[in-house]
Amino acid sequence: MKNFRNNYIITGGIIASLLLGSCKKDFLDQKPYTSVAAGDAVKTEADLQLALTGAYANLRSSNLYGRTLPVFGDLLADNVFVSSANSGRYISENTYTVVINDGDVAGVWTDAYSTILRANNIIDAALTGGATVNQIKGEAYAIRALVYFDLVRAYGKPYTDDPNSPGVPIVLHYDPKALPTRNTVAEAYTQILSDLDQAYSLMTAYNGSGTFSKYAARGLAAKVNLNKGDYQKALDEAKDVITASGFSLVGAADLAGYWAAATPHDSGTKQETLFEVVSDAVNNNSYDELSNIYVQGGTSYGDLLTTKSVYDLYSATDVRKALILIGVRQKTGGENPAYIVNKYPVVTGDFNDKKVLRLSDVYLVAAEAANRLGSGDATTYLNTLVAQRDPSLVYASTGAQQLTDIITERRKELAFEGDRFYDLNRLKLDINRGAEYSTGVIKYGDTRRVLPIPQSELNVNPNVAQNPGY
After folding, report:
1. CA distance linking residue 450 with residue 76, whole number of Å
2. What distance in Å separates the CA atoms of residue 48 and residue 66, rounded to the nearest whole number?
3. How many CB atoms are located within 10 Å of the residue 128 CB?
């Protein structure tokens, strides 16, 4: 597994060779890949677009949104578990025995910083002005913000716990000699929100849900501010998306088809998906796609199942209940009956895309922020979403009970999309794991609820301190 510093250098070379090696006869006269700066590699709008394509491709990595990031968000919580019949993947996360040389934890770190490097090279490119350049740079700012948000939540404490605790190194420019220290959680959030403000101001085009757009950046900012505990900002930004973006919630009758679709669902209609990481028949992780860790039978791993307690959250009239199948574990041995995740059913060819931010999440952000601010609008936001999921359910709760209801709806709506662990952390709640796990309750404050800094990073960067407990 490559470490952060070496990967940072090598990835710069990969980008440079991609940008420079496609057309020119004087390719052999170019600078060595370890010394090509962004100013040399990215000179035209075409170069910028190619670099942006590479940044989006990095998000598709099986270490990031291709599989591990959404898996961590549910497996480290109480939504999914590794079946007793498994292929050996994610065992340490399932049992809370993660060590500093865990390959999946290191893979997230490495590929996240590789993606940040790609975004940095776009942002630092000398090209300025014009709608196309601004759009590309705005998308790069949004990508960088998204990845730092993932990193600081995984490798640092929640902002709501200790904003001055160690977060992750903030690296904004190419420097192969840098040995950065860990910035605080607060500093990371400041950078993330600054990047999202830049993204919002620069982007004007909507090119489908497979790329960032103005209101995808604004929706992500609302979610970041919710995690920060800035509820007024979260509510203002969520309302902006709900009222001005032109996006609509996917309806109850369309939900099953929405999740079964292999192609980006919105097709320009701005329905539900603000941003997703796209896989297609050519660009995918094959057996290491997210769908293959859930789907049973055939060549799929089918390692992860959901718990009966998650299934039981949905009423008989809730259309989301159909996204969990009750069946027989089709690998040798294992749990029977099994509660099988059916949000990602496509396992060949054009795989399911990974939803990163949906309008339903924004409604739930608005509902929670409004509740915490004492606004009656919380009921409206909550029931607007629920009406498209469970027509028999209308919430009339207020205060603390309404907040509990909102958190329950977050679990029901966003299950298997990688949110649950970070919600429990920011809310400082224990993880009450059921009989499907060997770990029992993981108390809030347990040092294992923050991932270790990978040993591969510590080996080359003495300025990065390890998290407590590792």
Report:
1. 10
2. 24
3. 8
Q: Say if CB 102 and CB 120 are below 8 A apart.
A: no
The pLDDT of residue 330: 58
Within 10 angstroms of residue 121's Cβ, the number of other Cβ atoms is 29
Cis peptide before 462 (omega within 30 of 0): no
Per-residue model confidence (pLDDT) at position 332: 59
Indicate the average pLDDT of the chain: 90
Residue 78 structure tokens: 């109480």
CA dist 257 and 374 (Å) reads: 37
Share above pLDDT 90 across residues of the chain, in percent, rounded to a whole number: 83
- The CA distances from residue 61 to 26, 56, 77, 373, 398, in Å, are 32, 9, 22, 39, 42
CB 458 within 8 A of CB 175: no
Strands 431-432 and 441-442: antiparallel
Indicate if the pLDDT at residue 294 is higher than 70.
yes
HEC readout, the chain? CCCHHHHHHHHHHHHHHHHHCCCCHHHHHCCCHHHCCHHHHCCCHHHHHHHHHHHHHHHCCCCCCCCHHHHHHHHCCCCEEECCCCCCCCHHHHHCCCCCCCHHHHHHHHHHHHHHHHHHHHHCCCCCCCHHHHHHHHHHHHHHHHHHHHHHHHHCCCCCCCCCCECCCCCCCCCCCCCCCCCEHHHHHHHHHHHHHHHHHHCCCCCCCCCCCHHHHHHHHHHHHHHHCCHHHHHHHHHHHHHHCCCECCCHHHHHHHHHCCCCCCCCCCECEEEEECCCCCCCCHHHCHHHHHCCCCCCCCCEEECHHHHCCCCCCCHHHHHEEEECCCCCCCCCCEEEECCCCCCCCCCCCEEEEEHHHHHHHHHHHHHHCCCCHHHHHHHHHHCCCCCCCCCCCCHHHHHHHHHHHHHHHHCCCCCHHHHHHHCCCCEECCCCCCCCEECCCCHHHCCCCCHHHHHHCCCCCCCCCC
Tokens representing 98? Answer: 């993660």
List of domains in the chain: 4-452 (1.25.40.390)
Asked if pLDDT for residue 29 goes beyond 60, the answer is: no
| 171 alpha carbon, distance to own chain's centre | 20
**58-67, 230-239, 265-274, 374-383: lowest mean pLDDT where?**
265-274
- For 134-174, write each residue's pLDDT tens digit: 999 999 999 999 999 999 999 999 999 999 999 999 999 99
